[in-house]
């Protein structure tokens, strides 16, 4: 898919963006942000895991892959980017793990648009480092799960329908209304697809990771979704 055309952005990526099916923290991911220099949207790649100015090492980003919607506007690490450096993080979907109430292995689910469309996660970006060592980094904002997604987790990425992209990318500060979750009818268009356990190994990557498994291989759903982990 041509992300630059989909998001109306100038492609500033140094290499073509290839499909990834199992993205781990600190990996490069595509983002769409507004470039003040170009006065338009640009498509770039950023390291997943925002690095605040006081970070002493890039490894600190592994702990900052997600920002909670409830605290992002006041967090010392994320508030400056929420006010001035917001971005869209394109994705086809995301994984969650369901832990059964009793003993047994966890079941992986892939949340993706049923019509095969693209998602946009609400994200933040910043540049860390100096001179030639500068690194573009990002985080994804999460919010309380809604609609059918509560069946697999109590939280979810903050999804932005296309009619919210302009407002999210605007430079104005203090717009906490932007953190409202998407409407339930938008979420109703998501498929909760059970997939195999191979996604649990970050070294695995390929379209087979998002293939649905047979019904007789499906493990039972959890009684307590709060036991799950996001990303």
TrEMBL record:
Domain of life the protein comes from: Bacteria
Gene Ontology MF annotations: lyase activity; peptidase activity; single-stranded DNA binding
Record keywords: Covalent protein-DNA linkage, DNA damage, DNA-binding, Hydrolase, Lyase, Protease
Annotated InterPro entries: SRAP, SRAP-like
Pfam families in UniProt: SRAP
SUPFAM superfamilies: BB1717-like
GO terms under biological process: protein-DNA covalent cross-linking repair; proteolysis
Enzyme Commission code(s) on record: 3.4.-.-
Uppermost EC category: hydrolase
PANTHER family tied to this protein: ABASIC SITE PROCESSING PROTEIN HMCES (PTHR13604:SF0), DC12-RELATED (PTHR13604)
Family named by the database record: Belongs to the SOS response-associated peptidase family.
Protein's recorded name: Abasic site processing protein
């Amino acid at each position: 898919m041509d992300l630059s055309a989909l998001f109306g952005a100038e492609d500033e990526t140094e290499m073509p963006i290839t499909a990834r099916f199992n993205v781990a923290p600190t990996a490069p991911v595509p983002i769409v942000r507004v470039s003040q220099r170009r006065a338009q949207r640009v498509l770039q790649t950023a390291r997943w895991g925002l690095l605040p100015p006081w970070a002493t090492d890039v490894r600190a980003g592994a702990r900052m892959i997600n920002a909670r919607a409830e605290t992002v506007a006041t967090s010392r690490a994320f508030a400056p980017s929420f006010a001035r450096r917001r971005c869209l993080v394109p994705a086809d979907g995301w994984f969650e793990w369901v832990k059964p109430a009793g003993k047994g292995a966890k079941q992986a689910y892939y949340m993706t648009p049923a019509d095969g469309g693209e998602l946009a996660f609400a994200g933040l970006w910043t540049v860390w480092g100096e001179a030639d060592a500068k690194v573009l980094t990002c985080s994804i904002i999460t919010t309380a799960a809604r609609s059918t997604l509560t069946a697999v987790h109590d939280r979810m990425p903050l999804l932005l329908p296309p009619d919210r992209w302009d407002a999210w990318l605007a430079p104005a500060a203090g717009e906490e209304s932007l953190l409202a979750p998407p409407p339930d009818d938008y979420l109703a268009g998501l498929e909760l697809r059970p997939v195999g356990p191979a996604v649990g190994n970050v070294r695995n990557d390929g379209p087979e990771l998002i293939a649905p498994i047979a019904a007789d291989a499906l493990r039972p759903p959890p009684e307590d979704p709060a036991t799950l982990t996001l990303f």
